[in-house]
Design brief:
homodimer; 3-stranded antiparallel sheet; 7 helices; 3 strands; globular; DNA-binding
Chain lengths: 159, 159
DNA sequence: CTTAAATAAATTGCACACAATCTAATAACA
DNA sequence: TGTTATTAGATTGTGTGCAATTTATTTAAG
């Protein structure tokens, strides 16, 4: 089973330039996946999946959020969000109720249990610190570059 | 539908420190998802999904790869990889064959069609450049920080 | 006022992603 | 040598993630 034998031995300059975009997108993909993976076990202990955790974090920060608003904040559409919120309701962390003034909206509300979960979840963020091995400055830089990229993509997506 | 009203008005210092870990993990999650989203349409044109593209990129770089080796390189286990590779085989881009010397291994081999696809895919990486709005230096920094983080996670994962 | 357009959720179908388990093949060792 | 342990892939079950469609409600236009 040969390893690391390059097929296209002599990579052209063009190749090299194109490579960066792909490598960046791969690093992003892999890094996000690995980070989610290390969060999995700690989250399991408090009864959340990663996606459910993202939703709960949003609810811990803001109140009176409609499903639509949550989705906009965490980049998820109703196809993903509806079942996630329903599961959170089943676990007793949130309640869902239609808004009286506009029955199209579903308001998602923290329950007492959901609010209490915030304390249990307080040690979760340390998971990343213990595993990522970046200095504080590096972490800040990474964070701000990711947000800048995210903002760029959000503004004008021309595929 | 109230927006941006913080429930826990007075965030403690502790909160602030913990917040960074969570925000970083969220930015990673969101950014990776958005990048995959903008790759979707261009990839669809050449008949690949994002995951299939990652596998093909790996095969364009190396030859004689077993499923195991591919999985290690792109952080995927057989549960994900087996069906993806089978789909690539169905599309005619790769062939799968058991290794004679050790029947446990499946060797994944590019077909003529799979090799030719590399040229069609040559414009794909520009997708990111057109959408991410980072300078060359920023892109390089982001890339290296992601790889450093990835390496850190890979070395010793203590959850 | 009535029909048409717009909007928020829900539903459906397809493609991952991964833990857990199973199967088959090889390696290790008593 | 025969049994056990290890290993690579395949399978199964659960949970996203998203495009496309549907449903219910509200708004806009004529």
């Amino acid at each position: 089973m040969g390893t690391s034998k390059e097929i296209m031995g002599n990579a052209t300059n063009d190749d090299a330039i194109l490579k960066l975009g792909n490598e960046l997108c791969f690093s992003l993909y892999a890094c996000a996946k690995e980070v989610i993976r290390i969060y999995r076990k700690p989250l399991e202990k408090i009864g959340l999946t990663y996606t459910q955790y993202i939703v709960m974090m949003t609810l811990w920060q803001f109140c009176d959020m409609s499903a639509k608003e949550i989705g906009k904040k965490i980049y998820l559409d109703s196809g993903t969000l509806t079942p996630v919120i329903k599961k959170l309701e089943k676990s007793g962390f949130v309640k869902r109720q239609r808004v009286v003034e506009d029955e199209r909206f579903v308001k998602v509300i923290l329950t007492e249990k959901g609010l209490k979960l915030k304390e249990k979840a307080s040690t979760i963020p340390q998971t990343l610190e213990r595993n990522i091995y970046l200095s504080y400055d590096e972490t800040m830089t990474l964070h701000s570059l990711l947000n800048k990229a995210l903002k760029g993509i959000k503004e004008g997506t021309k595929i």
